[in-house]
Amino acid sequence: MTKQIYIRVIPRASKNKILKQSDGSFKIHLTAVPTDGKANKQLIKFLSTTWKIPQSQIKIIKGQKNQSKIIEIKQ
C-alpha cells in the first residue's frame, strides 16, 4: 500500500518543523539549502524521524527541483 502526500518545502529556515495545512498537505521548514539535493535529503531524513518510518519507504515522486513536492510513502 502506498500513500501520496503533497508537501511545500521552505528551505533555509531557522529550524526544522512541520505544519499540517487545512487541505491535508504539509508545509515543512528545513534548515538545509536547496543546493545539490541537500534539502531533499534532509526532507526524507526529517520525515523518517518525525513519522518513525524507514527512509527507504519515503520517495519524492514529483518536484525534485521545486518547493512543491509529492512524496510517496510505502507501508
Helices and strands in order:
Blueprint: E1 2-10, E2 17-20, E3 26-29, H1 38-51, E4 58-62, E5 68-74
Parallel strand pairs: 1-3
Antiparallel strand pairs: 1-5, 2-3, 4-5
What report would you give on this structure?
The chain is an alpha+beta fold and 75 residues long. The chain has one domain (2-61): 2-Layer Sandwich (Conserved Hypothetical Protein Mth637, Chain: A). The protein contains one helix and five strands, in the order βββαββ. It has one helix at residues 38-51; strands spanning 2-10, 17-20, 26-29, 58-62, 68-74. It has a five-stranded mixed sheet, with helices on one face.
Q: What keyword list fits this structure?
A:
alpha+beta; 39% strand; 75 residues; Conserved Hypothetical Protein Mth637, Chain: A; 5-stranded mixed sheet; single chain
Please provide a brief summary of the model.
19% of the residues lie in helices and 39% in strands. The chain has 75 residues and is of the alpha+beta class. The longest helix is centred in the middle third of the chain and has 14 residues, at 38-51.
Q: State the strand order across the main sheet.
A: 2-3-1-5-4
Residues in helices, as a percent range: 10-25%
CATH third-tier fold name: Conserved Hypothetical Protein Mth637, Chain: A
Low-confidence stretches: none
